[in-house]
Amino acid sequence: MAQKMIVFIIATGILAYYIYTPIPEEVDQKLKITMLNSLIRTWDHVGQLLEWLGWRHVMHSLRILTDMQNIPALSDENITVTDTIFSGVPVRLYVPTQQTNELKRGIIYIHGGGWCLGSPAMKSYDTVSRNTAKALNAVIVSTSYRLAPEFHFPTQFDDVYTVIKYFLQDHILAEYSVDPERTGISGDSAGGNLAAAVTQQIVEDAEVKNKPKIQALIYPALQPIDFDTPSYQQNKNMPLLTKSLTVRFWSEYFANDPSLYHAMASNTHMALEFNYLFTFVNWSMYLPENVKQSYTYSEPMFGKAELLQKYPGLMDSRAAPLLVKDSKLKLLPKTYVMTCEYDVLRDDGIMYVMRLRNAGVSVTHYHVKDGLHGALSLNSWPFDLENTKIVEAHYINWLDKNL
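The structure assignment produced for this chain is given below.
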C-alpha cells in the first residue's frame, strides 16, 4: 500500500509539472492555454528523448503534432479553395466566388512554425485565410515552403520569394482578377520573418514591376543576434513558445548543428569582428521605456568567429530583416506589425516598428497587451480563444482600410 502511495505521489507530481505553468493574470482562458501548453511540452520532451536515443529528429516528432491539424482544401458557397503549384512551390489558393466589376485585392500569406513546422493546410491557417478572403473579397495565396531540418536557409526564403514573383506577374494577377496596385504580403512568426525579408528584397527587384502595397507582420521573428532582449528575459518560460524552443528553431533554420544551438542558447554565437551588427538590434536605443521596464542592457558576449564563418546566414538580412540599413527601410510599403506582451518575439517587432518609423515608413503597431505567441491562430477547438477573434478582426480591418 505504501509503495502504491509513493508511486501515486510521484505520478501526481510529474503530471502537475507538465500541467502547471504560471500564466500572467491578464491572460484569459487559462485552462485552455494550460492544456495546450502541456500538450506541446509533453510532445517536445518526448521528441527530445527520441532524438537523444538517436531514433528521430525532435522536429520530426513535433511535426506529427502540426500535421495532425491538416485539413483538405474544401470550397464553400463563398470561397473556392484549391491546392495548386506556383512555380514549383505548393500553395493553397482562396478565390472568392462573389462577382464584382472591380478587380480584387490579393494577399500572399506565409505560415509560421519556426521554419520547421506547419503548412497552409493546418486548420488554424486555413481559417485565417478563409476569413480574410471572405471579409475582403480578396484572393489569398497561402504558400508553403520546404522545412528544416531537411532544408536550411536560404531555401525557405527562396521558395516564398519564388511564389511572390510568380503571383505578381501581370498575366497571373489578371488570371485571378487581382488589381496589380492592391497586393500585400503577410505572415506570422517565422512567416512574419519571411514576409519582412521578401518584402525588403522585392521592392528593389527590377524584375518585379508590380510591388506590394502593404506588408503585415504578425509577431515576427526578426533577428538571431541577441537572445537577451527584455522580452526574451521576461517570457523565457511563457506558454506556447519558450526561449529554448525559439533558439532551437533559429539554429535549425541555419543548420542541424548542436554547437550552434548551444552557442545561441548562451548568447555567445556572435564574434567580436561583427560587433557592428548589434547597432541594428540594440534594444536600449529602440525600445520605449515602458517596454525596457527594469531590464538593463549589457554589452554582448562574444564567441569564436568560426561559427559565423560556417553559417554566414546569421548575418544575412534575408534571415534577419532587422539588420538592414535605414536607407533600405525607407523603400518599404505601409506596414502593420502585431506584437504580444507575453511573447519572446515581442521586442523584435517593437524594434522594427521604431526603426521603420525613424526611416519614414507609415506603420500601424497593434500590441496585444494580454496576448501570447500565436494569438492570431488559436482559433480551432478545443483550444480556440475569444481573444483570437478580436485579434483577427483588428488584422482584417487594417487590411480592409489599407489595401
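Interim note for the steering committee: Confidence is low (pLDDT under 50) at residues 7-13. The beta strands are 79-86, 89-96, 104-110, 139-143, 178-188, 214-218, 334-342, 363-372.
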